[in-house]
Design goal:
The complex is a heterodimer of chains A (358) and B (396).
Chain A lengths: L5 H18 L2 H6 L6 H9 L18 H13 L6 H15 L2 H13 L4 E4 L15 E3 L2 E10 L6 E7 L5 E7 L5 E7 L5 E11 L1 E2 L7 H32 L1 E2 L2 E2 L4 H29 L5 H27 L9 H13 L5 H12 L1
Parallel strand pairs in A: 1-4
Antiparallel strand pairs in A: 2-3, 3-7, 4-5, 5-8, 6-7, 9-10
Chain B lengths: L2 H17 L2 H8 L6 H13 L18 H13 L7 H14 L2 H12 L5 E4 L15 E5 L2 E9 L9 E7 L10 E7 L5 E6 L8 E12 L3 E2 L5 H14 L4 H17 L1 E2 L2 E2 L4 H29 L7 H25 L24 H10 L10 H12 L5
Parallel strand pairs in B: 1-4
Antiparallel strand pairs in B: 2-3, 3-7, 4-5, 5-8, 6-7, 9-10
Classes of the chains: A alpha+beta (358), B alpha+beta (396).
């Protein structure tokens, strides 16, 4: 993927940060309803954010993993909930890698303009976070199986669904939302976003040509969701630091206590480390470096642990206030908890790193 | 454990099997919200059995049980999935009243408290007075036969169910902070009281903020001496910490975790069959056993007539961190299949079992709620300060 040059990148990030900060609303998080409305989605489109990662030849503005991750980071920092990860990052990458020219022409420009939203249905109930375990069957252009943890399911006009064909090869297929035989059971994740289990019974599907190896697409998604966690961690650290400087007990700001100073420093280090390893993983992905697999898993594993650490201590430092729904830190904790369950848990990535080293 | 205690434990176990109502037990095991009537139903069953206030002295209707026996009772009922024995009446204010109250107060309050005809709330913390409780600002000014109370209290658990609130108020703003505090019993239906529920991160709204605007409280509701409130509050906090080692609850959460490991699959196999998870469970079992052993040491000192001193501070730290470690393992296990927080958004009639293990949403709520274990009743930082100074002799 081609990255923006330094000047482009600077302009892009400045505009993105302003835009994302404007969209932030704690009241929205507290409402418990995080579905992205068509109006909100079109604001992301107007900003040009949905065209990132799509080549200009397909109506996009280019940019690679690093640029996509910038958007994810600001989504995390501001607790936004556009279906960007699956609809833009994953669908965009999967289509560019695996779809036919005609399939790509029919979709990428629509994605870039915000006219199509795509859900990604890959994991299965018995797979857990094991990305190779796919039992859904594709035969004669029809899929039967079950898919779990499909994010933002009600916004999608189309799903990209993985299944094994008659030869046992892994395939990706387009399935229209509302297809006969397709049913959705939705539930809320801790951060109030919707997810669904998809049940497919002999559902009409349009396969992308040829067998696919999803590793790179899933690694891109894993690192992007880690970037979202980095944004959330940086925000929660800022909120907590402000609180420690202003909250008084025993006649002094609680930030004057050495034990809290050390803890705040540890939280700062955790976020810096997380940010640094994510940047390295993104660069490895964008340059197709030989250690991209290692770095992608190392980043997700490290960031998930750091996120849990930062969120738990942020609440502890806030004391009772941190337990309340009116305080931002709990909402960040829930977002970080949710991220920990997406695109491989820390344990899965740890085991993968162990296999790489063996 | 002595044979006699082991026998008692078996008796409690058998009692829970036959007497703990199934609907209440199910709610507890799934970490769902209980209603006031759920609590009262169970507390009345315990009282009818003679166990609810058995730790009280005989002259006040108890049986003078040792702290150890009470601990065995609580562990056993929590392990079985019984509701929290809300301590505000029978463990907090009751003992304060029979220890420091006058004859009239004992006659008036103790009976209805043990029968849960009166539900108590605790009015201690304020927005500006959390860890630093002695800085509380709620004022009580004597006016004839009443105190006029103005101020506010926060983190008041179950205040919306409560009839009465035992409250720390400042009666002498001129005195040293600890010396100007008094212990007042306030009727929550008095004019001038507003209760605002506080929604918490686990989705509950069990805690409240209580606002008091010129609330008139009869002078006879002062417990003990005016200005003696801090002493009574400390007496009560010591009781609070003694019961804070929630071994029974930890055991229940471990059992739930074992259940999750059987049903959550990874790569086609249940987590229970995976060596990394077996090792993790072993580590948690060892932590839990260390907590039990620490408790045992404290009770040995107590029953030998010694003063366990500040062991309670240590137990609170170890207990809250153990519970939190178990909850973290819940999250790690459930994250593997995706964290379902609210499956009740499903179509009516669907039980959600195809989406998440039974109990998963409650386990997420328990993880979120469990942050409070290291905050309430004196944060872990405050407990560590106490231990550093008073046990290790360190001075800043």
């Amino acid at each position: 993927m081609t990255n923006f040059d330094a000047d482009e990148r600077q302009l892009f990030e400045a505009a993105l940060e302003r835009f994302a900060a404007d969209q932030h609303s704690l009241a929205r998080c507290r409402s418990g309803d995080m579905e992205c409305s068509p109006q909100e989605w079109s604001r992301f489109a107007d900003q040009g954010l949905l065209a990132i990662g799509v080549p200009p030849a397909f109506g996009g503005v280019g940019g690679g993993a690093a640029e996509l991750a910038c958007v994810m980071r600001e989504i995390g920092r501001n607790l936004l909930s556009p279906p960007f990860l699956d609809s833009v990052v994953v669908a965009g990458a999967a289509i560019q890698r695996f779809a036919s020219e005609a399939q790509a022409r029919a979709r990428l420009p629509m994605i870039a303009q915000g006219d199509q939203r795509t859900g990604f249905a890959h994991l299965e109930p018995r797979a857990g976070d094991h990305r190779q375990y796919v039992k859904a069957r594709l035969a004669q252009g029809r899929i039967t199986g079950a898919k779990s943890l499909v994010l933002d399911p009600t916004m999608a006009s189309e799903f990209i669904v993985s299944a094994r064909d008659e030869r046992g090869d892994l395939r990706l297929c387009f399935v229209a939302a509302g297809s006969e035989g397709l049913s959705l059971q939705t539930y809320r994740l801790p951060d109030a976003r919707l997810a669904a289990t998809l049940t497919l019974e002999d559902v009409r599907a349009e396969p992308m040509p040829g067998a696919v190896d999803l590793d790179r697409v899933l690694d891109l998604a894993g690192v992007c969701v880690a970037a979202e966690a980095v944004g959330a961690m940086e925000a929660v650290n800022r909120v907590t630091l402000d609180y420690a400087k202003t909250r008084k007990q025993f006649g002094v700001a609680i930030g004057s206590f050495q034990v809290l100073q050390h803890r705040l420093v540890d939280m700062y280090i955790a976020a810096e480390e997380a940010s640094a390893i994510v940047v390295d993983a993104l660069e490895a992905i964008d340059t197709d470096a030989p250690d991209a697999v290692f770095l992608a898993s190392a980043a997700k594993a490290r960031v998930d642990k750091a996120g849990r650490f930062v969120a738990e201590h942020a609440i502890q430092i806030h004391g009772g206030m941190g337990m309340t729904d009116e305080c931002a830190v709990g909402h960040y904790m829930k977002r970080l908890l949710t991220i920990g369950s997406q695109y491989g848990t820390a344990d899965w990535h740890l085991a993968r790193v162990a296999r790489l080293a063996a | 454990m002595s044979d006699e205690l082991a026998e008692f434990r078996a008796e409690v176990r058998a009692f829970c099997e036959t007497e703990l109502p199934a609907d209440i037990r199910s709610k507890v095991l799934l970490n769902q919200q209980l209603s006031k009537s759920d609590y009262v139903r169970w507390l009345n069953l315990l009282h009818a059995k003679g166990w609810l206030i058995a730790h009280w002295p005989v002259e006040h209707g108890g049986q003078g049980w040792s702290a150890l026996r009470r601990w065995v009772l609580e562990n056993e009922v929590y392990r079985a999935g019984a509701p929290w024995i809300a301590p505000f009446g029978v463990t907090y204010v009751g003992p304060v009243i029979y220890t420091f109250g006058n004859a009239e107060q004992k006659a008036r309050w103790l009976g209805p408290t043990v029968r849960h005809e009166i539900w108590w709330a605790q009015g201690y913390s304020e927005r500006g007075a959390g860890s630093d409780l002695a800085s509380l600002q709620t004022r009580a000014v004597r006016d004839g036969d009443s105190y006029v109370v103005t101020g506010h209290k926060i983190w008041t658990t179950m205040a919306r169910w409560a009839d009465m609130m035992f409250t720390l108020v400042r009666t002498d703003p001129g005195a040293k902070p600890q010396n100007g505090i008094s212990f007042l019993l306030i009727d929550l239906r008095s004019p001038g009281i507003t209760i605002r529920p506080i929604k918490t991160i686990d989705g509950a709204d069990e805690v409240n903020e209580v606002f008091l605007d010129e609330v008139r409280v009869p002078v006879e509701n002062l417990v003990g001496e005016e200005g003696g409130g801090w002493t009574y509050a400390k007496f009560l906090l010591d009781n609070e910490r003694l019961i804070s080692a929630e071994v029974g609850k930890a055991q229940r959460l471990m059992a739930q975790l074992r259940g999750f490991l059987r049903v959550v699959h990874n790569g086609g196999a249940p987590l229970a069959e995976q060596s990394a998870w077996r090792r993790r469970m072993a580590e948690l079992e060892i932590r839990l056993q260390s907590l039990v052993s620490l408790c045992g040491r404290m009770f040995a000192i107590l029953s030998a007539g010694g003063d366990p001193g500040l062991s309670a501070s240590m137990l609170k730290i170890v207990s809250s961190e153990t519970l939190q470690a178990i909850s973290s393992a819940h999250m790690d296990a459930l994250s593997i299949g995706g964290l379902a927080f609210e499956v009740e958004t499903l179509a009516p009639g669907a039980d959600g079992t195809s989406l998440a293990p039974v109990g998963a949403p409650g386990a997420v709520a328990e993880y979120l709620h469990g942050r409070v274990y290291s905050i309430w009743g004196g944060s872990s930082e405050v407990q560590r300060n106490i231990l550093a100074k008073a046990v290790l002799g360190l001075r800043s």
